[in-house]
Amino acid sequence: TVVNTNSLIRNSGTGVWNGGAASWNIVSNFGYFEFTATENNKLRCIGLSNANNASDQLSIQFAFYLQTDGNYRIYESGTDRGLIGPYQPGAVFKIKVDAGVVKYFKDGVLVYLSAIAPNLPLIVDVSINELGGTVTNAKVANYNNGRFSSNILNGGTYNWMVNGVVQQSGLASVYINANLNDHDTVICQLISNLPGCVSQTLESNYIENVFVAPDSVDA
Questions:
Q1: To bridge 34 with a disulfide, which of 11, 86, 94, 199 should be the other Cys (CB 3.0-4.6 Å)?
Q2: How many CA atoms lie within 13 A of 164 on its CB side?
Q3: Is the pLDDT of residue 216 over 60?
Q4: Kindly report the CA angle at 21 between 19 and 23, in degrees rounded to 5?
Q5: What pLDDT, on a 0 to 100 scale, did the predictor assign at position 173?
Q6: For 143-156, how does the pLDDT look when each residue is reduced to its tens digit (9 = 90+)?
Q7: For 41, how many CA atoms within 13 A lie in the half-sphere containing its CB?
Q8: Between 191 and 177, where is the model more confident?
Q9: Helix (H, G, I), strand (E, B) or coil at 131
Q10: How many angstroms separate the first and last alpha carbons of the chain?
Q11: CA–CA separation, 57 vs 35, rounded Å?
Q12: DSSP output for 1-41
């Protein structure tokens, strides 16, 4: 189940690697995926792959393997790279692609450097084994110079908003903003106009513009 847009919880079944999920958002070169481990006693595997081929832990190409004993490992396509160490509830895990190299971080500290070259772009890939296991505060970020563009097909009319202020309205399905600032948020309100249907307004998830420099300090 999706919780508060950026979090997941397994709310049925347990003890089987079939609680799979994947993202639409992609991680490109100099981008990263991070999440918070709310609990440290649930078995789950969370990371990145170039495709969502299965729901089990063996299919995740670059992953943190969070154990039930409060320790974590690195798994890459089912290959155990070894025990890394303990983690506490609230730990922040990050997988970053830096100049084609996959790097693993815990609480901002580099803990493992992969020898496997990724096939970019990557998507978030998750397998939760136990009832109540979570992925919290999931975030995908990519290197950006402040440019945003979108193209929507057959949607109706649109209100494109930056920081809550409408910037473009109408039938145009293309929106381009080349001057976003750090932490600006973009939302699209879609007003349906299908024949015979009652008009309604649907709001997208918000997109936050985060400057992620290729020569960042955690590289």
A1: 94
A2: 0
A3: no
A4: 170
A5: 77
A6: 777 788 887 776 67
A7: 1
A8: 177
A9: coil
A10: 33
A11: 17
A12: -EETTTEEE--S--SSS-EEEEEEEEE-TT-EEEEEES-SS
